[in-house]
């Protein structure tokens, strides 16, 4: 099969489009013929050697949609079925899994992180991670709402528990996870302040995806703008995924009793927190990791009913994965970048 892989760490130049062995499914596994695969920030981190040691050569790609091509022993699924892959892999046996918390599995992985991923014509995945794609949802839409969108869903619906009347600040609203969060917060009855790095991205979050207010964090003081918008009250929820450069501002933006929910460390993993404000204002700092199969089913159903839009920036042929990753590295995209094998 054709695949994009790397056998050494580095920039986009280490990516190679070449022949690789077609994987065979083992017990409890299926092989997927990949139709679309999303480009995620995680892919860039893995290629740069920032996620620990990988088994090289490595194939990235966590956000997969396609059709079932082959079955491993013990699997009973119709060949040719269109499916999306819930990318957070879990063991099903540990304490967390047994109580239904897939995202905190003690042996967790992400498809394409330490396992081989979907930057290829075929990928092997656990049968338990498959979710059928509704008939009126395209493969492009399905791939675009897997990892990033179910992460945003888990953050806002399951962890922060956004409710009607809340005001939510979303950082990096033009990213895959941010553009999903802008919409999901509104599905829960909240109003949104979209924060992005360019006027164009801010306008798009407002005009196309319904954010009521916008802030360009490159030229505006985010905390001061939030104070002005909220008449000094602050927001109920901050959707945080950038890390140490923004977490202090995020906490400053909260109203009393507010909560910051975070899933990322793009700008770094360590930060100081004002503990006095944390307890005196009864604030919450909430961690969220990934999303579940049920989250993916809910997201695909919302797309099917046209309650949620799959935000797609552009599609590239698989052989142009280096160009696609460069676009992400430059933060030039709005929404998801997809590859087509």
Descriptive account of the structure:
The chain is of the alpha/beta class and about 350 residues long. The chain folds into 2 domains: about 200 residues, Medium-chain alcohol dehydrogenases, catalytic domain (Quinone Oxidoreductase, Chain A, domain 1, Alpha-Beta Complex); about 130 residues, Rossmann fold (3-Layer(aba) Sandwich), CATH 3.40.50. The protein contains 11 helices and 17 strands. Strands 3, 4, 5, 8, 9, 16 and 17 form a 7-stranded mixed sheet that branches. It has a 6-stranded parallel sheet with strand order 12-11-10-13-14-15, sandwiched between helices. Strands 1-2 form a two-stranded antiparallel ribbon. Strand 10, helix 5 and strand 11 form a beta-alpha-beta unit. The longest helix has 13 residues. The termini are close together. The relative contact order is 0.16. Keywords: NADP. Pfam families: ADH_N, ADH_zinc_N. It comes from Sulfobacillus harzensis.
**How many structural domains can be distinguished in the coordinates?**
2
Decide which structural class fits the backbone.
alpha/beta
Mean pLDDT: 96
Taking Cα atoms only, what radius of gyration do you get, to the nearest Å? 20 Å
Oligomer: single chain
In N-to-C order, the SSE pattern is EEEHEEEHEEEHHEHEHEHEHEHEHEHE
Biggest sheet features = 7 strands, mixed
| CATH homologous superfamily identity of the largest domain | Medium-chain alcohol dehydrogenases, catalytic domain
- Give the distance, in angstroms, between the N- and C-terminal Cα atoms: 10 Å
Domain Enoyl reductase (ER): 10-339
Protein name: Zinc-binding dehydrogenase
Keywords: NADP
GO molecular function, one term: oxidoreductase activity
């Amino acid at each position: 099969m054709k695949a994009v892989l790397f056998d050494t760490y580095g920039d986009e130049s280490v990516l190679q489009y070449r022949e690789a062995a077609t994987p065979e499914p083992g017990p409890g596994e299926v092989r997927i013929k990949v139709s679309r695969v999303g480009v995620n920030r995680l892919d860039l981190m893995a290629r740069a050697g920032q996620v620990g040691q990988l088994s090289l050569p490595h194939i990235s790609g966590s956000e997969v949609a396609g059709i079932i091509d082959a079955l491993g022993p013990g699997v009973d699924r119709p060949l040719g079925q269109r499916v999306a892959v819930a990318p957070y892999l879990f063991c099903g046996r540990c304490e967390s899994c047994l109580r239904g918390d897939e995202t905190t599995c003690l042996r967790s992985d992400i498809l394409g992180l330490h396992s081989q991923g979907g930057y290829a014509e075929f990928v092997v995945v656990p049968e338990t991670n498959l979710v059928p794609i509704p008939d009126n949802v395209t493969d492009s839409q399905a791939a675009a709402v897997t990892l990033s969108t179910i992460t945003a869903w888990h953050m806002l619906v399951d962890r922060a528990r956004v409710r009607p009347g809340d005001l939510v600040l979303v950082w990096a609203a033009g990213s895959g996870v941010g553009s999903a969060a802008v919409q999901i917060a509104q599905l829960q009855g909240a109003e949104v302040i979209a924060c992005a790095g360019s006027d164009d991205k801010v306008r798009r979050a407002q005009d196309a995806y319904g954010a009521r207010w916008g802030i360009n964090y490159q030229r505006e003081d985010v905390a001061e703008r939030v104070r002005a918008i909220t008449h000094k009250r602050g927001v109920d929820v901050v959707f945080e995924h950038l890390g140490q450069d923004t977490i202090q501002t995020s906490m400053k933006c909260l109203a009393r009793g507010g909560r910051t929910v975070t899933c990322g460390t793009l700008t770094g993993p360590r930060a100081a927190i004002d503990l006095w404000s944390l307890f005196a204002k009864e604030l919450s700092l909430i961690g969220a990791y990934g999303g579940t199969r049920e989250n993916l089913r809910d997201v695909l159903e919302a797309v099917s009913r046209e309650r949620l839009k799959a935000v797609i920036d552009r599609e590239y042929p698989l052989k142009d994965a280096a160009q696609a990753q460069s676009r992400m590295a430059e933060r030039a995209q709005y929404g998801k970048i997809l590859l087509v094998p």
